[in-house]
Task: structure prediction
Amino acid sequence: MRSRIIGTGSFLPERVLTNHDLERLVETSDQWIQERTGIRERRVAGSDEDCRALARRAAERALAAAQISGQEIDLVVVATCTPDHIFPSTASGLQRILGVRPGAPAFDVSAACSGFIYALGIADQFIRAGSAQRALVIGAETMTRILDWEDRGTCVLFGDGAGAAVLEATEQEEGILATRLHSDGRYESLLYVPWGPGQGFPALQERGGYIRMRGNEVFKVAVNTLARIAEESLEAAGVEQSEIDWLIPHQANVRIIQATAKRLNLPMSRVVLTVGEHGNTSAASVPIALDTAVRDGRVQRGQLLLLEAFGGGFTWGSALIRY
Ligand code: UT7
Result:
Protein backbone atom coordinates (compact mmCIF):
# COMPACT_ATOMS: atom_id res chain seq x y z
CA MET A 1 0.00 0.00 0.00
CA ARG A 2 1.19 3.49 -0.88
CA SER A 3 -0.28 6.98 -0.88
CA ARG A 4 -0.66 9.12 -3.97
CA ILE A 5 -1.47 12.81 -4.30
CA ILE A 6 -4.93 13.25 -5.83
CA GLY A 7 -5.26 17.02 -5.43
CA THR A 8 -3.28 20.10 -4.46
CA GLY A 9 -4.23 23.66 -3.53
CA SER A 10 -2.65 26.81 -2.22
CA PHE A 11 -3.58 30.26 -1.06
CA LEU A 12 -1.74 33.56 -0.62
CA PRO A 13 -3.31 36.53 1.18
CA GLU A 14 -4.11 39.52 -0.97
CA ARG A 15 -1.87 42.15 0.62
CA VAL A 16 1.51 42.41 -1.11
CA LEU A 17 4.56 43.79 0.71
CA THR A 18 7.33 44.61 -1.77
CA ASN A 19 11.04 45.05 -1.13
CA HIS A 20 10.54 48.76 -1.78
CA ASP A 21 7.92 48.85 0.99
CA LEU A 22 10.52 47.33 3.33
CA GLU A 23 13.05 50.02 2.39
CA ARG A 24 10.81 52.39 4.31
CA LEU A 25 10.85 50.18 7.43
CA VAL A 26 14.48 49.09 7.82
CA GLU A 27 17.87 49.90 6.33
CA THR A 28 17.75 47.62 3.33
CA SER A 29 17.36 47.75 -0.44
CA ASP A 30 15.44 45.94 -3.12
CA GLN A 31 18.79 45.13 -4.73
CA TRP A 32 20.25 43.55 -1.55
CA ILE A 33 17.15 41.45 -0.93
CA GLN A 34 16.91 40.24 -4.52
CA GLU A 35 20.63 39.48 -4.84
CA ARG A 36 20.96 37.70 -1.49
CA THR A 37 17.62 35.87 -1.39
CA GLY A 38 15.77 36.04 -4.73
CA ILE A 39 12.72 37.50 -2.96
CA ARG A 40 10.81 40.32 -4.72
CA GLU A 41 7.69 40.44 -2.58
CA ARG A 42 5.78 38.59 0.11
CA ARG A 43 2.15 38.44 1.26
CA VAL A 44 0.80 39.59 4.61
CA ALA A 45 -2.37 38.11 6.11
CA GLY A 46 -5.12 40.65 6.83
CA SER A 47 -6.18 41.31 10.40
CA ASP A 48 -9.23 39.08 9.84
CA GLU A 49 -7.13 36.24 8.37
CA ASP A 50 -5.61 33.75 10.78
CA CYS A 51 -3.64 30.58 10.13
CA ARG A 52 -6.82 28.52 10.02
CA ALA A 53 -8.37 30.83 7.43
CA LEU A 54 -5.35 30.49 5.13
CA ALA A 55 -5.29 26.72 5.66
CA ARG A 56 -8.98 26.48 4.88
CA ARG A 57 -8.63 28.24 1.52
CA ALA A 58 -5.73 26.01 0.45
CA ALA A 59 -7.54 22.88 1.66
CA GLU A 60 -10.74 23.77 -0.17
CA ARG A 61 -8.78 24.15 -3.40
CA ALA A 62 -7.01 20.83 -2.87
CA LEU A 63 -10.31 19.05 -2.15
CA ALA A 64 -11.87 20.61 -5.27
CA ALA A 65 -8.89 19.48 -7.37
CA ALA A 66 -9.23 15.97 -5.93
CA GLN A 67 -12.98 16.12 -6.61
CA ILE A 68 -13.89 14.93 -3.13
CA SER A 69 -15.58 16.51 -0.12
CA GLY A 70 -14.30 16.91 3.41
CA GLN A 71 -16.53 14.01 4.47
CA GLU A 72 -14.33 11.63 2.52
CA ILE A 73 -11.20 12.60 4.48
CA ASP A 74 -10.24 10.44 7.45
CA LEU A 75 -7.05 12.16 8.62
CA VAL A 76 -6.10 15.86 8.87
CA VAL A 77 -2.51 16.90 9.53
CA VAL A 78 -1.55 20.57 9.61
CA ALA A 79 2.07 21.71 9.73
CA THR A 80 2.45 25.13 11.29
CA CYS A 81 4.62 27.04 13.74
CA THR A 82 2.14 29.92 13.85
CA PRO A 83 -1.14 28.33 15.05
CA ASP A 84 -3.99 30.60 16.12
CA HIS A 85 -4.42 28.86 19.46
CA ILE A 86 -2.29 26.80 21.80
CA PHE A 87 -5.15 24.34 21.58
CA PRO A 88 -7.30 23.06 20.02
CA SER A 89 -5.05 22.40 17.07
CA THR A 90 -5.45 24.12 13.70
CA ALA A 91 -6.27 20.67 12.30
CA SER A 92 -9.15 20.07 14.72
CA GLY A 93 -10.63 23.47 13.83
CA LEU A 94 -10.37 22.65 10.13
CA GLN A 95 -11.95 19.27 10.67
CA ARG A 96 -15.11 21.02 11.79
CA ILE A 97 -14.99 23.77 9.15
CA LEU A 98 -14.41 21.34 6.28
CA GLY A 99 -16.94 18.77 7.47
CA VAL A 100 -14.39 16.02 7.98
CA ARG A 101 -15.92 12.99 9.73
CA PRO A 102 -16.16 13.59 13.50
CA GLY A 103 -13.89 11.09 15.23
CA ALA A 104 -11.21 11.08 12.51
CA PRO A 105 -7.74 11.98 13.86
CA ALA A 106 -6.66 15.59 13.34
CA PHE A 107 -3.51 17.16 14.72
CA ASP A 108 -0.80 19.77 14.13
CA VAL A 109 2.86 19.07 13.49
CA SER A 110 5.59 21.44 14.66
CA ALA A 111 8.78 21.18 12.62
CA ALA A 112 9.17 24.81 11.49
CA CYS A 113 10.03 25.12 7.78
CA SER A 114 10.26 21.32 7.40
CA GLY A 115 6.71 20.98 8.70
CA PHE A 116 5.01 20.02 5.45
CA ILE A 117 7.53 17.27 4.70
CA TYR A 118 7.02 15.96 8.25
CA ALA A 119 3.21 16.09 7.87
CA LEU A 120 3.42 14.34 4.50
CA GLY A 121 5.70 11.64 5.92
CA ILE A 122 3.38 11.05 8.87
CA ALA A 123 0.22 10.90 6.72
CA ASP A 124 2.01 8.54 4.32
CA GLN A 125 2.80 6.22 7.25
CA PHE A 126 -0.86 6.27 8.38
CA ILE A 127 -1.94 5.26 4.88
CA ARG A 128 0.75 2.62 4.44
CA ALA A 129 -0.29 1.11 7.79
CA GLY A 130 -3.94 1.00 6.69
CA SER A 131 -4.99 3.49 9.40
CA ALA A 132 -6.30 6.04 6.89
CA GLN A 133 -7.58 5.96 3.32
CA ARG A 134 -7.59 9.66 2.50
CA ALA A 135 -5.55 12.32 4.25
CA LEU A 136 -5.57 16.08 4.03
CA VAL A 137 -2.05 17.43 4.57
CA ILE A 138 -1.58 21.18 4.95
CA GLY A 139 1.22 23.64 5.57
CA ALA A 140 -0.11 27.02 6.74
CA GLU A 141 1.70 29.96 8.30
CA THR A 142 1.22 33.53 9.43
CA MET A 143 4.96 34.18 9.75
CA THR A 144 4.57 37.97 9.57
CA ARG A 145 2.96 37.83 13.03
CA ILE A 146 6.21 36.58 14.59
CA LEU A 147 8.56 38.99 12.83
CA ASP A 148 10.52 41.77 14.47
CA TRP A 149 9.94 44.56 11.93
CA GLU A 150 13.06 46.32 13.19
CA ASP A 151 15.34 43.36 12.45
CA ARG A 152 16.42 43.58 8.81
CA GLY A 153 18.09 40.18 9.07
CA THR A 154 14.71 38.44 9.33
CA CYS A 155 11.82 40.77 8.46
CA VAL A 156 12.71 40.87 4.75
CA LEU A 157 12.67 37.07 4.45
CA PHE A 158 9.31 35.72 5.56
CA GLY A 159 5.71 35.83 4.35
CA ASP A 160 2.27 34.31 4.91
CA GLY A 161 0.47 31.59 2.94
CA ALA A 162 -0.82 28.03 2.86
CA GLY A 163 -0.60 24.95 0.67
CA ALA A 164 -2.34 21.58 0.81
CA ALA A 165 -2.36 18.11 -0.70
CA VAL A 166 -4.94 15.32 -0.56
CA LEU A 167 -3.46 11.83 -0.29
CA GLU A 168 -5.26 8.62 -1.15
CA ALA A 169 -4.33 4.98 -0.60
CA THR A 170 -3.29 3.12 -3.73
CA GLU A 171 -1.97 -0.32 -4.54
CA GLN A 172 -0.25 0.96 -7.70
CA GLU A 173 3.50 1.52 -7.97
CA GLU A 174 3.06 5.31 -8.15
CA GLY A 175 2.76 7.79 -5.29
CA ILE A 176 5.09 8.58 -2.40
CA LEU A 177 8.08 6.29 -2.88
CA ALA A 178 10.11 7.34 0.17
CA THR A 179 10.15 9.98 2.89
CA ARG A 180 13.03 10.80 5.20
CA LEU A 181 12.67 12.97 8.33
CA HIS A 182 15.47 14.27 10.57
CA SER A 183 16.17 16.59 13.46
CA ASP A 184 19.27 17.80 15.30
CA GLY A 185 18.44 19.82 18.41
CA ARG A 186 22.02 21.00 18.86
CA TYR A 187 21.37 23.89 16.46
CA GLU A 188 18.51 25.48 18.39
CA SER A 189 20.38 28.71 19.06
CA LEU A 190 20.80 29.52 15.35
CA LEU A 191 17.08 29.78 14.56
CA TYR A 192 14.33 30.05 17.14
CA VAL A 193 11.54 32.08 18.70
CA PRO A 194 12.64 32.86 22.27
CA TRP A 195 9.23 32.53 23.84
CA GLY A 196 6.46 29.96 24.26
CA PRO A 197 3.31 29.94 26.41
CA GLY A 198 4.89 27.69 29.05
CA GLN A 199 7.26 30.52 29.98
CA GLY A 200 4.56 32.96 31.05
CA PHE A 201 3.79 36.48 29.94
CA PRO A 202 6.50 38.41 31.81
CA ALA A 203 9.02 36.38 29.77
CA LEU A 204 7.23 37.42 26.60
CA GLN A 205 7.68 41.08 27.45
CA GLU A 206 11.31 40.50 28.34
CA ARG A 207 12.34 38.46 25.29
CA GLY A 208 9.76 39.19 22.60
CA GLY A 209 8.00 36.46 20.66
CA TYR A 210 9.84 37.03 17.40
CA ILE A 211 12.06 34.94 15.15
CA ARG A 212 15.75 35.12 15.96
CA MET A 213 18.15 33.82 13.34
CA ARG A 214 21.89 33.73 12.69
CA GLY A 215 21.24 33.68 8.96
CA ASN A 216 24.69 33.09 7.62
CA GLU A 217 25.32 30.09 9.89
CA VAL A 218 21.89 28.64 9.07
CA PHE A 219 22.68 29.11 5.39
CA LYS A 220 25.85 27.01 5.55
CA VAL A 221 24.26 24.08 7.41
CA ALA A 222 21.21 24.20 5.13
CA VAL A 223 23.28 23.91 1.94
CA ASN A 224 25.30 20.94 3.21
CA THR A 225 22.33 19.13 4.72
CA LEU A 226 19.99 19.48 1.76
CA ALA A 227 22.46 18.00 -0.70
CA ARG A 228 22.93 15.00 1.61
CA ILE A 229 19.24 14.37 2.15
CA ALA A 230 18.49 14.41 -1.55
CA GLU A 231 21.02 11.63 -2.05
CA GLU A 232 19.61 9.69 0.90
CA SER A 233 16.02 9.55 -0.38
CA LEU A 234 17.14 8.62 -3.90
CA GLU A 235 19.10 5.74 -2.42
CA ALA A 236 16.13 4.63 -0.29
CA ALA A 237 13.92 4.41 -3.38
CA GLY A 238 16.64 2.96 -5.63
CA VAL A 239 16.33 5.88 -8.04
CA GLU A 240 19.11 7.62 -10.02
CA GLN A 241 19.68 11.34 -9.70
CA SER A 242 19.18 11.75 -13.46
CA GLU A 243 15.62 10.40 -13.21
CA ILE A 244 14.35 13.40 -11.20
CA ASP A 245 11.98 15.51 -13.28
CA TRP A 246 11.39 18.27 -10.72
CA LEU A 247 13.10 19.44 -7.56
CA ILE A 248 10.48 21.15 -5.40
CA PRO A 249 12.47 22.66 -2.54
CA HIS A 250 11.64 24.70 0.51
CA GLN A 251 11.55 28.30 -0.69
CA ALA A 252 13.82 30.18 1.72
CA ASN A 253 16.61 31.54 -0.43
CA VAL A 254 17.34 31.14 -4.15
CA ARG A 255 21.05 30.71 -3.38
CA ILE A 256 20.39 27.70 -1.14
CA ILE A 257 18.15 26.24 -3.87
CA GLN A 258 20.77 26.81 -6.57
CA ALA A 259 23.44 25.13 -4.46
CA THR A 260 21.20 22.08 -3.88
CA ALA A 261 20.35 21.84 -7.58
CA LYS A 262 24.03 22.03 -8.47
CA ARG A 263 24.91 19.16 -6.13
CA LEU A 264 22.13 17.13 -7.79
CA ASN A 265 23.37 18.06 -11.29
CA LEU A 266 19.93 19.52 -12.01
CA PRO A 267 19.61 22.63 -14.20
CA MET A 268 17.49 25.40 -12.66
CA SER A 269 14.96 24.78 -15.45
CA ARG A 270 13.98 21.61 -13.55
CA VAL A 271 13.59 23.36 -10.20
CA VAL A 272 10.30 24.88 -9.11
CA LEU A 273 11.12 28.35 -7.83
CA THR A 274 8.41 30.49 -6.23
CA VAL A 275 10.35 32.26 -3.45
CA GLY A 276 10.41 35.51 -5.46
CA GLU A 277 6.64 35.84 -5.22
CA HIS A 278 6.05 34.98 -1.55
CA GLY A 279 9.32 34.82 0.39
CA ASN A 280 9.85 32.15 3.03
CA THR A 281 6.39 30.89 4.07
CA SER A 282 7.92 28.20 6.30
CA ALA A 283 5.79 25.02 6.30
CA ALA A 284 3.61 26.40 3.50
CA SER A 285 6.40 26.89 0.98
CA VAL A 286 6.78 23.35 -0.42
CA PRO A 287 3.03 22.76 -0.97
CA ILE A 288 2.64 26.24 -2.52
CA ALA A 289 5.48 25.47 -4.95
CA LEU A 290 4.04 22.03 -5.69
CA ASP A 291 0.56 23.39 -6.34
CA THR A 292 1.93 26.21 -8.52
CA ALA A 293 3.77 23.73 -10.75
CA VAL A 294 0.81 21.33 -10.91
CA ARG A 295 -1.57 24.11 -11.92
CA ASP A 296 0.69 25.71 -14.53
CA GLY A 297 1.22 22.30 -16.12
CA ARG A 298 4.92 21.86 -15.41
CA VAL A 299 4.34 18.85 -13.12
CA GLN A 300 2.71 16.01 -15.05
CA ARG A 301 1.38 12.62 -13.95
CA GLY A 302 4.07 9.95 -13.96
CA GLN A 303 6.94 12.39 -13.31
CA LEU A 304 9.42 11.97 -10.49
CA LEU A 305 9.41 14.76 -7.90
CA LEU A 306 11.88 15.39 -5.12
CA LEU A 307 10.50 17.56 -2.31
CA GLU A 308 12.83 18.76 0.42
CA ALA A 309 12.94 21.24 3.29
CA PHE A 310 15.16 22.54 6.08
CA GLY A 311 14.23 24.63 9.10
CA GLY A 312 14.39 25.49 12.79
CA GLY A 313 15.30 22.70 15.18
CA PHE A 314 17.20 22.06 12.97
CA THR A 315 14.76 19.82 11.18
CA TRP A 316 15.00 18.59 7.62
CA GLY A 317 13.38 16.04 5.38
CA SER A 318 12.60 14.89 1.87
CA ALA A 319 9.93 13.05 -0.06
CA LEU A 320 10.39 11.28 -3.37
CA ILE A 321 7.13 11.06 -5.31
CA ARG A 322 6.11 9.36 -8.56
CA TYR A 323 3.37 11.91 -9.21
O1 UT7 B 1 13.77 28.54 6.27
C1 UT7 B 1 14.48 28.26 7.40
C2 UT7 B 1 15.90 28.33 7.17
N1 UT7 B 1 16.36 29.69 6.96
C3 UT7 B 1 17.11 29.95 5.95
O2 UT7 B 1 17.33 29.08 5.13
C4 UT7 B 1 17.78 31.28 5.86
C5 UT7 B 1 19.24 31.06 5.66
N2 UT7 B 1 20.03 32.27 5.55
C6 UT7 B 1 19.94 33.12 4.50
O3 UT7 B 1 19.11 32.99 3.63
C7 UT7 B 1 20.99 34.22 4.41
O4 UT7 B 1 22.00 33.96 5.34
C8 UT7 B 1 20.42 35.64 4.63
C9 UT7 B 1 19.61 36.04 3.42
C10 UT7 B 1 19.60 35.68 5.88
C11 UT7 B 1 21.57 36.64 4.74
O5 UT7 B 1 22.42 36.58 3.61
P1 UT7 B 1 24.00 36.46 3.78
O6 UT7 B 1 24.59 36.51 2.44
O7 UT7 B 1 24.26 35.24 4.62
O8 UT7 B 1 24.36 37.79 4.53
P2 UT7 B 1 25.05 37.99 5.97
O9 UT7 B 1 24.15 37.57 7.06
O10 UT7 B 1 26.43 37.41 5.92
O11 UT7 B 1 25.17 39.56 6.00
C12 UT7 B 1 25.96 40.29 5.03
C13 UT7 B 1 25.77 41.78 5.28
C14 UT7 B 1 25.94 42.16 6.73
O12 UT7 B 1 26.58 43.43 6.79
P3 UT7 B 1 28.15 43.54 7.09
O13 UT7 B 1 28.35 42.93 8.45
O14 UT7 B 1 28.82 42.78 6.01
O15 UT7 B 1 28.39 45.02 7.05
C15 UT7 B 1 24.52 42.32 7.22
O16 UT7 B 1 24.41 43.20 8.32
O17 UT7 B 1 24.45 42.17 4.92
C16 UT7 B 1 23.84 42.88 6.00
N3 UT7 B 1 22.40 42.65 5.97
C17 UT7 B 1 21.57 43.40 5.22
N4 UT7 B 1 21.79 44.44 4.40
C18 UT7 B 1 20.73 44.97 3.77
C19 UT7 B 1 21.68 41.71 6.63
N5 UT7 B 1 20.38 41.83 6.31
C20 UT7 B 1 20.29 42.87 5.45
C21 UT7 B 1 19.21 43.47 4.77
N6 UT7 B 1 19.48 44.51 3.94
N7 UT7 B 1 17.94 43.04 4.91
In short: The chain has two domains: 2-171, 176-322.
